[in-house]
Specification:
Elements lengths: L4 E9 L6 E6 L16 E5 L4 E5 L2 E3 L1 E5 L4 H6 L4 E3 L6 H10 L3 E6 L13 H18 L5 E8 L10 H17 L5 E6 L5 H8 L5 E5 L7 H7 L6 E5 L21 H16 L5 E7 L23 H11 L9 E7 L4 E3 L3 E9 L7 E8 L28 E5 L5 E10 L5 E12 L15 E2 L11 E7 L4 E7 L9 E6 L6 E6 L8 H5 L7 E3 L10 E7 L20 E7 L1
Parallel strand pairs: 2-26, 6-7, 6-13, 7-8, 8-9, 9-10, 10-11, 11-12, 12-13, 15-20
Antiparallel strand pairs: 1-2, 1-21, 1-24, 3-4, 4-5, 14-16, 16-18, 17-19, 19-20, 22-25, 23-24, 25-28, 27-28
Helix pairs in contact: 3-4, 7-8
Length: about 575
Amino acid sequence: MKKYVSFAICIAVGAMIGVAQIIGCAAEPSGGVSQPIGAVPVKVVKTQNGYQLLRGGKPYFVKGAGGGESWSLLSQYGGNSVRTWGADTLGKDLENAQSNGLTLTAGIWLGHKEHGFNYSDPNAVRNQFDSAQSTVERYKNSPNLLIWALGNEMEGYGPTTDPNMWKAVEDLARMAHRVDPNHPTMTVIAELGGNKISSINKYCPDIDIIGINSYAGAQSIAQRYQAAGGIKPFIVTEYGPPGVWEMKMNSWGAAPEPTSTQKADWYVKAYTSSIANQPLCVGSYVFAWGYKQEATATWYGMFLPDGSRLAPVDAMSKVWTGKTPQRPVPVINSLTLAGPDSVSGGAAVEADAAVQSPTGDPLKIDWKLVSDPASYHVGGDVEATPQEYPDAIASPTGSHVKVVMPKYKGAYRLFAYVHDQHGGAAVGNIPILIAQGDVAGPVLAKKATLPLVLYGDNVVDAPYIASGWMGNAGAIKMDPQCASNPHDGKTCIQVDYTAGDSWGRSSVAKSRQRLGRCSRRIRSSRSEKAYVLGARRPGRRKSVVFVWFNQGRQDLSRHRLGKTGCSADVVMEAVFY
């Protein structure tokens, strides 16, 4: 029997200063409600020149997106499919997609070496297999299920890959074919480097489709795939603007971000060059149909947090439907800084944005200054929202702004958010460095009125993230939108530990970096009492939740680690053993 523990939590700071509450719910098995019987068969068939998908016996080309923004809008703008990365909320996702006339490629998350998963550990591999099989058995008859996507970038980013991992993928694909003969299998890789394609060809005969995540290289992916030995059909499973790792850094190490107007061209060129009319390509999923803090607040998102759509949405709608939206989004023609991009602390800088509305509608420009971590990663792990400096915006006058920079040394970004009156927007930013200034102080939580919600329904800009992963972290699964019997509100956080042995730990906090040992050190700081209310599934696994609330946003600089430092206002830690 698989052994695991699950509980669900929702955090709120009450009106009484220094009281934190964790409100729990009795958790059900992740994935929501089972789908009704009525599978529509999907087949991969060979054509004279390549491959195509047949769904219900009819040709089907994937015009999809990955991300959680309005799926009704995706259908309205010409998309026909959505992609997920994990199965934690698969039941709800299938229902949502079906209600909007969309198919769904169901991701089954597989362990990553960098997250602590070991493909040489038979127990870990077996538990992962059992979990995947349970998912396939439960949802195989869903009428809008399209493809089983086994893993996402679990091969890593080095020149070679682990044969044991590919053998585990093959075992999963063979199982999926046996349990569900109506849906093809796919595994998703990060670009084409190293021996990825040859390894899949060698070890994974039961993988029907190769999913490829590609950004700056997406325009040439079709040609490079065949040159790498690709013989199976492929889907471009993520594409968009160049990844932050693919940009030429400026003189002091910051990655310049293209404006939303410029990003639209990257989406279109990738689609027309490597996706449409390519014999081995059976479709694509743009990234990200929604909003995500990764590198910056706007690098990959096709929407803003308020739901305003950006130029890539209009661009994809046109290539999917052949029609230009009736009210195109605003355009940023230029975004410039009047002076150097490296200044002293407290200096005044000025910037200008040249914008226009294709339909002549009035536009509003909002300026924001935020800190920039200037530390860029590959893999898409969750990142904390950077600190904003609203008081720095001294004299905003539409397309022109004067900014008084903070006194602290470090990297910053000045954002220009442009809105029309019809849900359209554009965004761009300029990196700015304070080379001479005070050493930065602790990162403070945003000003807020009580009760301060640290996690709650529909929170898109949460300052607290899961970090400090330790032990068998790959076995810890979190669903931040669990709707199963929450104690308060509509959703809560559900946490599952899926391994049958070992231990795992994760912290949830606001900090400059992933917490690691920092959370343990914060235990010794002055903290207020926390009340924990949670429901745990029966089983042999034990769990404990630690919560610290730092009253009055104290300076926790004495708990710094090395030169990087970290500070936190609230830390929640879940430990499984």
